[in-house]
Amino acid sequence: MLEHAGIADLLYPMVRGRLTHIAGQPVRAERFADGRARNLVEREFNLSYTDALPAGNRVVAGYWFGAGKAGASVEEGIAKTLGIRLGDTLRFDVAGQSVEAPVTSLRKLDWGSMRVNFFVILPPAAMQGLPQTYITAFHLAPAQAALGNRMVAAFPNITVVNTDMILRQIQDVLDQVIAAIEFLFVFTLAAGVTVLYAALSGARDERKRDAGLLKALGASAAVVRQTQYAEFLVVGGLAGLLASLGAIAVGWGLSQFVFDFPYRFNGWIVPAGVLSGMLCAFAGGWLGLREVLRQPALATLREA
Would you call 162 exposed, middle or buried from its count of C-beta atoms within 10 A (0-12, 13-18, 19+)? Predict the structure, then answer.
C-alpha cells in the first residue's frame, strides 16, 4: 500500500528491552543523580537491529560492528547521560531473555529529521527469536491524507499516529506563549519609560536650575537641549547593552541546563537592545523634561 502511494520508507524492527547491567554493574535508578537518567533506566528501551548503519546516523566514536559481528551502537547523548563508555558490555532483559553486547560505537543522530531513530542498535544475530514489532515514519502530502485511514481499515492491528495534529497543537501553545512574552516585553518597556519619567519629574527643579545657569553663562537653548538628549541616549544605550547581554546569558543558560539543545547566538540582539534602550530613554526624557527646556533662563533664576 505504501509502495503504491509512492512512499519508499522502510519498516524498522523494534524490540522492547530493559537495561539491567552496564559493564557488569546492575542498573538501579538510585545510582543516578540526573532525573532523566533515572527515568530512562526505569522504563524499557526501544531496541533495533541491522547490519548497515541507518541513514542519518553518524559514528562519532569507535567503529560500526558490521555484518556477522557482535557489538552494540549507542546514541552519544544517552551514553553520556547513563555513563556508558566504549567497551562496556550492556545487558538487556527482553521478555525474560538476556541479551548482551559490548559497546563498539557511539552514534550522533538528527532527532529533528522525523525519521525513525533508536538509542541502541544491535546486530541481527543477537535478536533472533525475540518478540518484535515494526515501525516506520513517512510524510503524506495533503492530497494523500486519507491513506492513513485506508491503512487502518485494511490492517486493523497497526497503529497510525498523525504527527501533523500533534505539531499543530504544539504550535498553538507556542504561539500563545510567544504572544504572552511579547505582551510582557511591551509592558516592561512601558513600565521602564514610566519609571524614567517619574525619576526625571522628581529632579525637575534641579534640572531647571542647571539649565537656567547654563543659559545665563552663555549656552544656547540648542546646546542645553543637545546635552540633555545626549545624556538620555548614553544612559539608555548602556541600559540596553546590559539588558541584551543579560538576555544572551539567560538564553544560553536555559538552552544548556534546562532544554538541553545547542544555543544559537543571534548577533542582532546586542544592537537591537542598545537601540531600544536609547529610544525608550529618549522618549522618557523628552516627556519628563520638555518643560525644563522651554522655560527662559531669567524665569528659572528668579524662581531659584
Answer: exposed
What CA–CA distance (Å, rounded) separates 144 from 86?
A: 44
Q: For residues 45 and 81, is the Cβ–Cβ distance under 8 A?
A: no
Domain layout of the chain by residue ranges: 12-161, 166-303
Per-residue pLDDT of the chain (304 residues; tens, 9 = 90+): 666 666 666 788 999 999 999 988 888 888 888 788 888 888 888 899 988 888 888 899 999 987 778 889 999 989 998 989 999 999 999 988 899 999 999 999 877 777 888 999 999 888 888 888 888 887 777 777 777 778 878 888 888 888 888 888 888 988 898 888 878 877 877 777 777 667 666 666 666 666 666 666 666 667 777 777 787 788 888 888 888 888 888 888 878 787 777 778 888 888 888 888 888 777 777 666 666 556 555 555 555 5
- Among the listed residues 75, 72, 76, 78, the one whose alpha carbon sits nearest the alpha carbon of residue 123: 72
What are the distances in angstroms from CA 144 to CA 56, 175, 254? 25, 28, 39
